[in-house]
Specification:
This protein is of the alpha/beta class. The protein has a domain of 152 residues: 3-Layer(aba) Sandwich (Rossmann fold), CATH 3.40.50.300. 36% of the residues lie in helices and 24% in strands. The strands form two sheets. It has a six-stranded mixed sheet, with helices on both faces. Strand 4 and strand 5 form a beta hairpin. Helix 4 runs parallel beside helix 7. The longest helix has 18 residues. It is globular, with a radius of gyration of 19 Å. The termini are far apart. The relative contact order is 0.16.
Length: 270
Amino acid sequence: MTPLLRVEDLHVHFRSVEAVAGISFEIQKGEVLALVGESGSGKSASALALTRLLPERAAEIRGRALLGDTDLLSLAPRDLRRVRGGRIAYVFQEPMSALHPLLRVGRQVAEAVRQHRPGVPAMKEAVRLLGETGLPDPERAARAWPHELSGGMQQRAIIAMALAGEPDLLIADEPTTALDVTVQAQILELLKTERRKRAMAVLFITHHMALLTSFADRIAVMRHGKIVEQGPFLEVISAPKHPYTRGLLACVPRLGARLKRFPTLSEVAP
């Protein structure tokens, strides 16, 4: 089966720093791949490099990122703009930073509809998407300024914007950061529902291993810009082969555990 996305030997350099050191992975249609690692491991840089969202003057990108038969890293800027927000959409970890503070929420979602689905009534579709993602009064939410919505409501609006182009692949980069536990669960459930409904693939980036239970199909563990272990999610977490993977799992809090303090990664995976 031809994968939806195949990444081959991806490198990202920021001047003298190698943030991503030759990683390779695949994502099948409708599959959830979790990209896991601590902050600074290269997860976000890898995701942004796929559609060349990193600043060109600062980042050098090498390798191949094949969406079907199309190499995203060699596309002309005009063709790449059709892919961004269209076939590949992003949900970022800071919704307040992702939403334009001087534009009403509905206008921002409608803009994505106009860009990728011309001919569709943009504002009507924006309101529908805001309702589909769980905002209780989508008409009112569409008229709201971003600062008038809570963090969880903002993230639902960002997800609506990402879904506006009917993407084949959704890249969710730490989408539950800065949200309370209840809202985290709601956002994760929303992503699971939309994935099933749309047969959409998801690249889910996180350092929070506990979020992935019953969601991820496969997992790729990153450290220092490299993928150190990958495979089926249940197989990897039940019998991790790499010390770093075992270290990540050892740092997950467990109910009933009687510890004076939790171990650090430097202790369990030096």
